[in-house]
């Protein structure tokens, strides 16, 4: 996958940090850290919009950041409950017909130089937070489910719509919500590999009669500030 350079550098730095740490043994005196984990992953999403020249809707790629807080000391039936904050940006490998510079706008029957270059490509950014529940009956595999609420931002190529100022309409924002889940695999004491799926709802986007439903997968890793302990009851 092709990433924006800052996201690629951030992901590389994160992996360089957690892999050496994963091999360290945590002494018992340090077992009580904050129940916090941070993760990064590569994402592939269908934005429920735009097709290529063959009529195929292709995914668009990017990266996802997760920050999870796992509650402790809860009643047994609430063990595994936590909260998650998530940020995602996808902008690469989308349909060529929705890529920046692919299509001029405001041409009509005119010819260059009256046509103007397309000022925007296809890009989606989301920032969400909500509830997370993780099943930790097994020492290695931890399935989870989540529901998130937040905001979404979409950049898209100019079409025939224009703002009152006369500028092309190439950006919109919405309150969004999503359902998701996945599984984490305990690679080392403080490092998990994560496979995550998310299905989003963007109500009334661009006048659509139904919600826009971007959805996709993210593959990455999380680093826990608190070591995992296996107990008779999950925590």
3D architecture notes:
This protein is mainly beta. It has one domain (5-20, 39-224): Porin (Beta Barrel), CATH 2.40.160. The protein contains one helix and eight strands; from the N terminus they run αββββββββ. An eight-stranded antiparallel barrel has the order 1-2-3-4-5-6-7-8. Strand 4 (123-134) and strand 5 (141-155) form a beta hairpin. It is elongated.
List keywords for this structure.
235 residues, mainly beta, Porin, eight-stranded antiparallel beta barrel, 8 strands, disordered C terminus
Radius of gyration: 21 Å
**Count of the separate structural domains:** 1
Major sheet characteristics: 8 strands, antiparallel, barrel
Question: What is the CATH topology assignment?
Answer: Porin
Please tally the β strands and state the result: 8
Order of helices and strands: HEEEEEEEE
Classify the helix fraction into a percent range. Answer: under 10%
Question: What's the rounded overall pLDDT mean?
Answer: 76
Can you name the CATH architecture? Beta Barrel
Q: What general form does the structure show? A: elongated
Beta-strand percentage range? 35-45%
Number of helices: 1
CATH class: Mainly Beta
Measured distance between first and last alpha carbons: 36 Å
Q: Which ranges are low-confidence, i.e. pLDDT below 50, for 5 or more consecutive residues?
A: 17-33, 230-235
The secondary structure category is mainly beta
